[in-house]
Amino acid sequence: MNRWQKIAWFNLTITAICFIICLLLAIAMRWRVAIPPTPLSLVIIPWLVLVAISKVIFRKKSKRVDFDERDRQIHNNAHYVGLWAFVLSITAALTIEAMICFIAAGPGATLGHPLILLLTICAGGGAWIAAESVAILIHYSWGDKNA
Amino acid sequence: MPENGLSNNIRRLRFEKGEMTQQQLADLVGVTRQTIIAIEQGKYAPSLPLAFRIALAFGVPLESVFQYEPESSAPTHNSLL
Asked: Which of A73, A140, B48, B51 is most solvent-facing, going by the fewest CB within 10 Å?
């Protein structure tokens, strides 16, 4: 497993853990379980920091080349996959939110709470990171069976 | 035959060049070992500069390392004339 696969696994794991924590918090809020109030920033900020510093955590160990034309091609493809995942997830989330709003409160309702938009963007960011990581892992595993 | 019609003799040339390892070849041409593995297996078509660097590393012409067999639907030299 090369450095980029390790970074992709790390980002995917961190994103999955944060997604599960957010899901548990949402369930707890829905069923009004008595938990101490947890600001979402306690989940989102560590996620952003860990994803941002993943290249420092898995730094280059030897002087050998660890990023060449094939890696660049894989990363470019993965960026496109991530971008599409971001756009699709934001579109899907906003559509679902609008439908819920329309059904629950009628045609005059608005998505006024700024937290909803922030959470939607964060969810889109999570989808981007997850999709990009999965694309990187698939690309590498396809040509890397004997590595 | 790989999907892209490109085949190569890298494995044979490595062994003829004193059992050169994939890592040694990768270091010589400035890529990762995984890229050499992918090229050898026909899963990655290298860029032209990289193909020339590989040929130079073995000291042979490019066509001794890489061969291209067009698919039946692809235009051939004769069909273009």
From this structure: B48
Q: Which amino acid is at B53?
A: R
Contacting A with CB below 8 Å, chain B residues are 26-27, 30-35, 37-38, 41, 43-44, 46-47, 50
Q: Residue B62: which pLDDT band, with cuts at 50, 70 and 90?
A: very high
Segment A56-106, tens digit of pLDDT: 888 888 888 889 999 999 999 999 999 999 999 999 998 988 888 788 777
What's the average model confidence in pLDDT over B26-47? 92
pTM of the model: 0.80
Measured CA to CA, the distance from residue B43 to residue A108 in angstroms comes to 56
Q: Tell me, rounded to whole angstroms, the distance of Cα B30 from its chain centroid.
A: 15
Interface size, chain A vs chain B, as Cβ–Cβ contacts under 8 Å: 46
Domains contained in chain B, number: 1
Residue of B27, B37, B47 lying closest to A144 (CB–CB)? B37
Residue of A nearest to B51 (CA): A69
Domain that holds residue B30: 6-80
Domain annotation covers residue B1: no
Which residue from B minimizes the CA distance to A140?
A: B34
The conformation of residue B8, written as its DSSP 8-state character, comes to E
Angle at the Cα of A98 from the Cα atoms of A103 and A38, rounded to 5 degrees: 100
Average pLDDT over residues B72-81: 60
Q: What's the pLDDT score for residue A120?
A: 85
